[in-house]
Amino acid sequence: MNAPAIKHYLQFADFTADEYAYLFERAALIKRKFKNYEKHDTLADRTLAMIFEKASTRTRVSFEAGMYQLGGSVVHLTTGDSQLGRSEPIEDTARVIGRMVDLVMIRTFEQVRIESFAAHSRVPVINGLTNEFHPCQILADIFTWIEQRGSIAGKTVAWVGDGNNMANTWLQASEVLGFTVHVSTPSGYEVDQSVAGLRSPRSYKVFADPLDACRGADLVTTDVWTSMGYEAENEARRQAFARWCVDETMMRAARPGALFMHCLPAHRGEEVAAQVIDGPQSVVWDEAENRMHVQKALMEYLLLGQQ
Ligand code: CP
Ligand code: NVA
Questions:
Q1: What homologous superfamily does CATH list for 137-287?
Q2: Taking 90 as the threshold, does the pLDDT of residue 114 lie above it?
Q3: Which residues, in sequence order, are CB contacts of 169 under 8 Å at separation 6+?
Q4: Is 288 in the pocket of ligand 2 (CB under 6 A)?
Q5: Alpha helices, DSSP H only, in 199-283?
Q6: Is 60 exceeded by the pLDDT of residue 1?
Q7: How far is it between the farthest Cα atoms of the chain?
Q8: In 3-state terms, what secondary structure has residue 38?
Q9: Which fold has domain 12-134+289-304?
Q10: Per-residue model confidence (pLDDT) at position 5
Q11: Alpha carbon of 306 to those of 26, 136, 301: distances in Å?
Q12: Ramachandran assignment for 113, one of left (phi > 0), alpha (psi -120 to 50 degrees), beta (any other)
């Protein structure tokens, strides 16, 4: 008998709309149980290895706490304290770790690095952020939208800022779940459709002026001007991005009651005004908390399938 194919979660397009519908429902149940102090230990005796080649607060805590709550345990590795930092090939690391744990989460640089790991892993691999994508964050963001407003299909999301991993993932999500993204980036920092892995340009519109991108949007979102790994470009980016700050004028151009999201960490006064991120339309703390609930549903799904 052939072993069932391993499912990885390396980019948002890896799952269908039906799989997302299941995950969002399951995450809601898991969150309800967590709030009621009800045990939900479907991954008892399972082990998650987390490999961080970049810094993290939310991703580490949400996966680690989430796995313990599911009854499992966690191994935490970084480049600096593992042989990865001494040039052990990623393929060999994958072969070894997959023999000892049930699931792997990786935060790293190029997407090809996590793809090489997954190709040599006999256990599921989750993308905890790469230069190109951040699918777990968008999973949490869309779950947060659904909690607040219902289905995201047909809605408009305004992306103000860098054409980075978050922008690419919002764009992939718009193709899978049927919504529109208004994208405004400074020139030289545009989204690249082939890097974002999009099927067509139909689900997004590009705006030179960030204020125009926000007009009529149901959700306005942004991210840091300089992502991890691009620190050498910091000064050039500070100048190029000066007008890409989500402020109250931009929020007023959006639909009344529009939500503001940010994956965090945030820099008040750079990509977002303090009045917006700390204001009534902001749901950033829910987004952060929801990382844990959706990732518990994700880990359970990758290991056990639909319950
Ligand atoms: N949003 C997010 O992934 O945060 P961390 O970098 O703290 O994990
Ligand atoms: N775009 C940011 C997201 C951090 C969670 C980065 O890659 O650094």
A1: Aspartate/ornithine carbamoyltransferase (3.40.50.1370)
A2: yes
A3: 11, 12, 133, 134, 135, 137, 138
A4: no
A5: 210-214, 234-240, 248-253, 274-277
A6: no
A7: 61
A8: coil
A9: Rossmann fold (3.40.50)
A10: 84
A11: 9, 18, 6
A12: alpha
The CATH 3.40.50.1370 domain(s) of the chain lie at 12-134+289-304, 137-287
Q: Is the pLDDT of residue 3 over 80?
A: no
Mutate to test the pocket of ligand 2, among 53, 56, 114, 129 (most ligand atoms within 8 A of CB): 129
d(CA 165, CA 149): 25
- Mean pLDDT lowest for which of 82-86, 160-164, 259-263? 82-86
Going by CA atoms, what residue is nearest to atom 1 of ligand 1?
A: 263
Residue 283 has pLDDT above 80, yes or no: yes
Pocket lining for ligand 1, CB < 6 angstroms: 56-59, 129, 137, 263-264
Tens of pLDDT along 7-34? 999 999 999 999 999 999 999 999 999 9
**What is the residue type of 131?**
N
